[in-house]
Description:
Elements: E1 4-9, H1 11-14, H2 21-34, E2 36-40, H3 58-75, E3 81-83, H4 86-101, H5 103-114, E4 126-128, H6 129-137, H7 139-143, E5 154-157, H8 179-186, E6 190-191, H9 205-208, H10 210-226, E7 231-234, H11 237-245, H12 247-254, E8 262-264, H13 265-272, H14 290-297
Parallel strand pairs: 1-2, 1-3, 3-4, 5-6, 5-7, 7-8
Amino acid sequence: MAKKEYAFYPGCSSQKGASASNYLVSVESMCKTLDIKMTEIPDWNCCAASISYAEAGNLPRHVLNARNFALAADNLPGQDIVATCAACWLGARESKERLEHSSVLLEDTNTALKEAGLNIKVIPEIKHMVEVLIEDLGYSELASHVKKPLAGMKIAGYVGCQTNRPFGIHGESFENPMYLDKLIETVGAEPTPYDQKVTCCGGALAFSEPEKAQAQIKDIIESAYDSGADMVVTPCPLCQANVEVYQGQINKRYGTKFNIPVLYYSQLMVVAYGGSAKDAGLNGQVIRARKLEDLAGK
């Protein structure tokens, strides 16, 4: 029996074959080392992160999240739901809060779910993967598995906005959360001072208003370079994609020469735990993390 067991919600971006599938690869490898069993929620659906903004309204968004809650409770009773995607986690946490505090919304939601033969009786706890690592396991347990410390690597911890507000890691400052810095130290690397750690990456503005988003991303990357970082690490798939993928366009727009790897915390941990570059999903990077690849190959 595994040390910890959870109902896993991969989300659209982190599922196999999607844009952040390398994130899933690294999380699976990390969980194997930490003896964490993640059982995927059967027949899960999209968390509806954007449909309310497309004029679908709030009820459909909460119903879609509630369907995942009901499936988890029915198939994996007693297990907390864990998401690796910041947007999925944030949306699910909001739906849980609203459903638990509004009998009217809960009744309307159950009316909709009845069409699918489902009903919400108990809403599981919703956790981001970093909450599992920090709050359920703890830094000492995480450090105990390190075989290849990332000594000499300087890393900027980019928290982003979604895993920081309004819920965040227990006991953390919203203005200057330190959990990524502590995770970086746990695997033997050096966290660099980083004044853009909770700045928004622009999110979907990268598509609709790219100039605005790229200006924000430029500030994030410049701060990382100014701190002396070799790479940026984040807990959010959208932050990872935006900050990595648009560096080329930003270079053309601003005449800069950015080329800094942007990774997930789980990739650092897999390499530090002795995993291969493939185990860490490093082959899925647009900007290669050569220092990590070299260490993984030793």
